[in-house]
Automatic annotation (TrEMBL), chain A:
It is found in: Cell membrane. The chain crosses the membrane at residues 22-45, 91-112, 124-144, 172-197, 218-243, 279-298. Residues 87-299 form the ABC transmembrane type-1 domain. The keyword RNA-binding does not apply. This is Sugar ABC transporter permease.
UniProtKB/TrEMBL annotation, chain B:
The lineage of its organism: Bacteria, Bacillati, Actinomycetota, Actinomycetes, Micrococcales. PANTHER family: ABC TRANSPORTER SUBSTRATE-BINDING PROTEIN, ARABINOSE-BINDING PROTEIN-RELATED. InterPro entries: Bact_solute-bd_prot1, SBP, TAT_signal. PROSITE patterns: TAT (PS51318). Gene3D superfamilies: Periplasmic binding protein-like II (3.40.190.10). This is Extracellular solute-binding protein.
Length: 310, 461
């Protein structure tokens, strides 16, 4: 007998009670999830759809009037020779900061996981840059990198070296931004990895050691695979963060010189807010969104397969 | 069921039914509807916005609004709060005084973000390179008729400062926090180099002086330290050097970078930074490096006089150097910000006009100039006791005032064309940093200026 037939056969009183329960559950769901869903709808999905809608317009931000031009802004972006360079810069910055951040962060976490004197203070100090404002960090590092009177110039001078032209000659400006991004983010990466390292069961390590595995072998065969979920989480969050990075570029190089530090996110800002082309800026934002979506989907599809869950 | 990522997904999401697909479609349609209900009206051309409202207004029949919003960069300063409080006490009109941010770009962003909403300011500051964008967006009104009704003596504004806001025979703002570029030099360096205690008369003269200047500077110093490439300064200073040599970025909407004079200036820039006779260097922190004795001279805004002097007591202040045009011919641009009226109703516009009148009276203009380092925007302000006392205290304040005689209205390519300032700066970087010849760079720049004009200006004219 089908469940439908069973349901139809149930006494009317029980059916009413079940319906009441269903509505009560719906009510509880609406009460608990409703505010969050409303906020998501208003502050995430609405702007997202609006941005896509604006990308179809020739519209100056602030203007009451616009012209519908279909995919005209997208056609312009794909035909602009600058676009390929901006995408390349964005990808280079993303790969360098994500790969570099994870490698250094993991190394730092391994060091902090040992029983060292003052470990608590070192952990706090390492994490502190992550909570600082990007703009403030940018200005601070400008004083350090200043090749004319900066701190780094003095330090390099002690070693008999001259300061690279951090602000004026490619590829130094992008390298400078990557270094500062790494400095700002490795504390966060290290903290997350540290939590993962502390969750690795000691008995597994001990068993491996008894079987004659050395430190490197234990790390490669046991620790690293068990850190898989954390590595995967960091890979996605750091990639998304790098692709949307803005504050350091804004405060240190303004996307220059010669556009060498202009990323997609910075292009959205320049087109939308400096030049006022709301439609074109929205088109670039939509392209960035699609790239974010594709990169995340690829990571979910291919990288997650290699992740071992306990 | 648990997905590979560990998320527990309902059956409906793993194997979507026709109903859930319909729900998804409904959500998409709803979102599309939401989008279509918001934002600008889609049509073939711009309307006049607030400007149309203002053009047809008989101001004598209007009563000012009881409250208006004023968006300003100096909202946090004691003097501006004082000026606003005095206005309210005098007129009874309350001012909602809001901050526009920390820079002209932030101000423009905040203004644009608020445009068309209930948060839109009725009076707002606008920088020299952003006010025209407010105009093309239909957010500001021409002030001529309103100022005439309010009996504001517009002839008393410094011509170049007020003229910067003229377009299509009307003025769209009044000058408020205005500045000009100046030539600053280190008198100690000048003395050591055996140079007369004055700025160079021409750029060629400065170039001739540069070996002497560099001979008394540290090995990594330079005769001139230029602020790091970036928006504003490159194009602002470059405008003066072009004008001094009878060239310009543009004449209204006609680009003029293909002339012999313009190309000469472009290559003058190239040789200043590149080659064995280079005499310029890019400064990252211009003021600090100048004060540290790395440079013999810099170009900076009028507003820097007091702070530069605090950092470098041996500061010399001079006019921007000239070139091939007569010494008394206009060759210096002005910059800074003005006040626009963007209120949506005639009542708010009238109250906004009254605030403009109050903030720019000769006495208030003088108080503002003394406090901030900006230029006195009114001729009568120079004669006030406040201004004269300030000049007596720091005599160098008189020099930018005298330089006003040789200022003129900026080129459309830099000041009016949206993004023009940025385009010019980016292309000058090719000359300065890569040492490229001016001709192909200026040809590319001309194409870019034309493209920007066709995209961002022509549809709105």
């Amino acid at each position: 007998m089908s469940s439908h037939a069973l349901s139809s056969a149930a006494p009317p009183g029980r059916r009413t009670a079940r319906r009441k329960k269903l509505w009560r559950n719906i009510g509880v769901f609406a009460l608990l999830a409703g505010p969050n869903l409303a906020l998501l709808l208003i502050f995430t999905y609405r702007p997202m759809f609006l941005s896509f809608y604006y990308s179809m317009l020739n519209w100056n931000i602030g203007s009451d009037f616009a012209q519908f031009i279909g995919f005209g802004n997208y056609v312009e972006w794909f035909n602009d020779p600058e676009s390929a360079r901006i995408v390349a810069t964005t990808l280079l910055y993303t790969v360098a900061t994500v790969a570099g951040g994870m490698a250094i962060g993991l190394a730092l976490a391994l060091a902090l996981n040992r029983k060292l004197f003052g470990r608590g203070i070192v952990r706090t100090v390492t994490f502190a840059p992550y909570v600082l404002s990007g703009i403030a960090v940018g200005f601070l590092w400008m004083y350090i990198f200043n090749p004319n009177i900066g701190l780094l110039r003095t330090v390099l001078g002690w070693l008999g070296l001259s300061s690279p032209p951090w602000f004026t000659q490619q590829p130094w400006p992008l390298i400078m931004i990557i270094i500062v991004t790494l400095w700002k983010h490795i504390g966060y990466v290290a903290l997350i990895y540290l939590a993962g390292l502390q969750a690795v069961p000691q008995d597994l390590r001990d068993a491996a050691a008894l079987d004659g595995a050395g430190t490197w072998r234990v790390f490669r065969a046991i620790v690293l695979p068990l850190l898989g979920p954390i590595t995967f989480f960091l890979l996605i969050t750091l990639t998304l963060s790098a692709l949307q990075s803005f504050d350091l570029i804004r405060s240190m190089t303004n996307g220059g010189p010669l556009g060498s530090t202009k990323t997609l996110m910075y292009q959205v800002y320049v087109e939308g807010f400096q030049i006022g082309r709301g439609g074109y800026g929205s088109a670039v934002a939509t392209i960035l969104f699609v790239i974010l979506l594709v990169v995340t989907a690829i990571q979910m599809k291919f990288v997650e397969r290699r992740v071992h869950y306990q | 069921m648990r997905s590979r990522s560990g998320l527990i997904l309902p059956e409906s999401l793993r194997q979507p039914s026709r109903r859930s697909l319909l729900q998804l479609g409904g959500l998409g349609l709803g979102a599309g509807f939401l989008a279509a209900c918001s934002g600008p009206s889609v049509g073939s051309s711009d309307g006049g916005g607030n400007a149309e409202t203002a053009a047809g207004t008989d101001w004598s029949t209007i009563e000012p609004a009881e409250q208006i919003t004023f968006m300003s960069l100096q909202q946090g300063t004691e003097l501006e709060q004082e000026l606003v409080a005095e206005f309210t006490a005098e007129t009874g009109i309350a001012i909602n005084h809001v901050s526009g941010g920390g820079s002209y770009e932030e101000l423009a962003q905040n203004f644009r973000a608020s445009a068309g909403t209930s948060e839109q300011p009725d009076v707002a500051q606008a920088s020299d390179v952003f006010w025209f964008q407010y105009l093309t967006s239909g957010n500001t009104i021409p002030v001529d008729g309103l100022l005439e009704h309010l009996e504001v003596e517009v002839d008393d504004f410094q011509e170049a400062l007020y003229g910067d806001y003229e377009f299509d025979g009307q003025h769209w703002a009044v000058p408020y926090g205005r500045s000009t570029p100046m030539f600053y030099y280190n008198k100690t360096v000048w003395e050591s180099a055996g140079l007369p205690d004055r700025g160079p008369d021409t750029w060629t003269e400065f170039q001739e002086w540069s070996p002497q200047i560099q001979s008394v500077l540290p090995a990594d110093g330079a005769a001139m330290g230029w602020s790091a490439p970036g928006p504003s300064n490159t194009a602002w200073f470059g405008q003066s050097i072009l004008w001094a040599h009878d060239a310009a970025f543009s004449h209204e909407w006609e680009w003029s970078l293909d002339t012999e004079e313009a190309l000469w200036v472009g290559n003058f820039y190239r040789d200043a930074f590149n080659g064995p006779d280079a005499w310029s260097k890019v400064a990252v922190d211009q003021a600090a490096e100048f004060a540290a004795g790395l440079y013999g001279a810099i170009m900076g805004s009028t507003g820097g006089i007091v702070s530069y002097r605090e950092m470098l007591p041996t500061l010399g202040v001079a006019f921007m150097p000239g070139g091939t045009i007569p010494a008394d011919a206009p060759r210096v641009p002005t910059g800074g910000n003005g006040l626009t009226i963007s209120g949506p109703t005639p009542e708010k516009q009238l109250a906004g006009g009254m605030l403009l009148r109050h903030l720019t009276t000769p006495e208030n203009s003088a108080r503002w100039a003394v406090s901030t380092g900006y230029m006195p925007t009114r001729k009568a302000a120079i004669e006030t006791e406040t201004m004269q006392a300030a000049i007596a205290e720091v005599p160098d304040r008189q020099i930018p005032i005298d330089q006003l005689e040789i200022t003129k209205v900026q080129d459309y390519a830099r000041a009016l064309l949206p993004g023009g300032d940025l385009l010019i700066s980016e292309h000058f970087e090719r000359i300065i940093l890569s040492g490229e010849d001016a001709e192909p760079v200026f040809a590319d720049l001309t194409n870019e200026l034309q493209r920007a004009f066709e995209q961002n200006v022509e549809p709105h004219l």
